[in-house]
Write a structure and sequence with these properties.
A: about 240 residues, Rossmann fold, six-stranded mixed β-sheet, 9 helices, globular, B: mainly alpha, two-stranded antiparallel sheet, about 75% helix
């Protein structure tokens, strides 16, 4: 067993001459909640895509608990224990909530669907079409689809996008609790600094496709280059 | 669940029996002939509609599979290679197998490109049968040599409108019941999920191409079944059974009936034939009336006739089947 839950090495993706991600390495310890922050266009979503197998990397390797999963398509990575949610809500609009959760569950070895639906407040909506529930509920459904089957590593791409500040903080605290309960390692992209600082044990800061800084929230918050590049004066 | 299954079984039996009584109630041989054709086409349209429902894909080439079903029966009679019952099965399996192979390649393409390729493949089959006269007499067509007994029944049973109507009706009800079961199964949910969001289906751990290819194959098999029944009934097969206009008609039926309900396209086929008949009595330009109606249906009833029926039933407090 590797000391790392998830490792990415030399991850690079170019669009034309532009390097969206340039030789990035990242490693998550089992059980940690890592925040991934950076300005728009820093490469956060690209990094999530490379780790989760959305499109093939031009170069680089990804290991899940020491096992090389670089050649695996997204489907196999999910079955190996690496799940993700999406920044742009990515659900099955014409299926009921229960049907799609059930479908995701039957691809997994562990059935925690009742717990997941309860925790994310979806139980009362089980027989509703996903297209007919509120945006906030759809966001939680997107996360629920990734959480069923208790993945070992969970990639969350702005799970709270479009939610109010109170809603996003609640969701974040809930995710922290679930991650601890099921020992899920989490990598989360989030713009809301309050959310990030309240749930993350470590942060990685991306800028222009490279890693700018890494450390605990307190360390990162006080790094001058981070302040100028991203956080600006609002957090100083 | 068992209550639901019992109810569904009850509906099937009731509809099956009701259909079997139709020939006794209808005196006019002309109308009965028309209805038999309608039910044959209803089976074809059901196949086309199932592809739309489960894969979100439009086929312009289901005449190709219909024609395979018809020609395999006709050719096995000509060359005396196997019993007619076996040829029926061979045509259906052959169409399904071809669809699996084609699907593995074509289903990687987005909607319109897929539709165009289905048209191209079906037209290629049409040209093949038309030009390779040695195979099936080209556009002269080929008479189907029927043995005296088919599936233990006298051959005339398959050629008289009254009895053939009953046979086709029962086949249609069985096909619809089978599809309803399939839709309610895990496979049904999975294929609907893939239709809705193929990427997320992969990200929750599923292969997406094989299930879509299987839906295409099932849809093709149903079309071939309709073709084989047509060959038995008509006793004569020409390349017209492979022509694109038949694919187009089947699609029109599915659109008129609506594809959300599995029985929608079959209802569309009945409406299409009765309407075509009425319009044909009025004017020789009946396709214009059909076309105009199609536009009206698409605009006013986007969910088709079956969607309207389901809506009416909900309004009077019943759950649609």
């Amino acid at each position: 067993m590797s000391e790392w839950a998830l490792e990415g090495d030399g991850l690079t993706r170019r669009y034309g001459g532009f390097a969206a991600l340039d030789d990035v390495a990242i490693a998550l310890r089992p059980g940690e909640i890592r925040g991934l922050i950076g300005p728009n266009g820093a490469g956060k979503s690209t990094l999530m895509d490379l780790l989760s197998g959305r499109g093939a990397p031009l170069s680089g390797r990804v290991r899940l608990f020491g096992r090389d999963i670089s050649a695996m398509p997204a489907r196999q990575r999910r079955r190996a224990g690496l799940a993700r949610s999406f920044q742009k809500t990515n659900i099955f609009p014409d299926l009921t909530v229960a049907k799609q959760i059930g479908l995701a569950t039957s691809a997994a070895e562990i059935d925690n669907s009742v717990e997941v639906m309860d925790a994310l407040g979806l139980t009362a909506l089980r027989d509703r079409r996903a297209a007919d529930i509120s945006h906030g509920d759809q966001r939680r459904l997107d996360v629920a689809l990734a959480l069923v089957g208790r993945p070992r590593v969970l990639l969350l791409d702005e799970p709270a996008a479009g939610l109010t500040m109170a809603e996003s903080l609640n969701l974040a605290l809930l995710l922290r609790e679930l991650a601890a309960r099921w020992q899920v390692t989490v990598l989360i992209v989030e713009h809301d600094m309050e959310v990030i600082f309240s749930i993350c044990s470590h942060l990685t800061v991306l800028q222009l496709g490279r890693i700018l800084a890494e450390g605990t929230p307190e360390q990162v918050r006080s790094m001058p280059e981070v302040i100028t590049a991203y956080l600006g004066s609002s957090v100083a | 669940m068992t209550g639901k299954a019992t109810r569904a079984l009850g509906i099937c039996l009731a509809v099956g029996l009701a259909g079997a009584l139709v020939p006794r109630l209808i005196g006019s041989p002309l109308l009965l002939t028309l209805l038999t054709q309608a039910v044959l086409n209803a089976i074809l349209a059901t196949g086309v509609g199932f592809l739309v429902r489960q894969n979100g894909l439009v086929s312009f080439g289901h005449a190709g599979f219909f024609g395979i079903g018809a020609y395999v029966v006709a050719l096995s009679g000509k060359y005396q290679v196997m019993p007619i019952e076996a040829s029926l099965l061979l045509g259906i399996l052959g169409a399904a197998g071809l669809a699996l192979l084609l699907g593995a390649a074509m289903l990687r393409l987005a909607g319109v490109a897929f539709s165009m390729l289905t048209l191209a493949v079906a037209q290629a089959l049409y040209e093949l049968v038309l030009r390779w006269r040695g195979l099936a007499n080209g556009d002269d067509g080929i008479a189907v040599q029927l043995p005296r007994r088919i599936f233990g029944l006298d051959q005339s049973v398959f050629q008289q409108p009254a009895s053939m109507f009953t046979i086709c009706w029962i086949v249609l009800v069985l096909v619809l019941a089978g599809l309803a079961l399939l839709i309610a199964s895990h496979f049904g949910t999975l294929t609907m999920a893939i239709r809705e969001n193929e990427e997320r289906a992969r990200f929750i751990g599923y292969r997406t191409l094989p299930p879509r290819a299987v839906v295409y194959a099932i849809s093709a098999a149903i079309a071939a079944l309709a073709g084989a029944l047509f060959a038995l009934y008509n006793g004569f097969v020409t390349p017209d059974v492979l022509y694109w206009s038949l694919s187009g008609e089947a699609l029109v039926m599915a659109v008129i009936g609506g594809t959300r309900a599995v029985w929608g396209p079959a209802l569309g086929a009945l409406i299409f034939f009765l309407f075509k008949n009425a319009a044909g009595d009025l004017t020789e330009h009946w396709p214009a009336i059909i076309g105009g109606t199609l536009i009206v249906v698409t605009v006013l009833l986007p969910r088709g006739a079956s969607g309207s029926v389901a809506m009416l039933m909900e309004r009077v407090g019943m759950r649609a089947p």
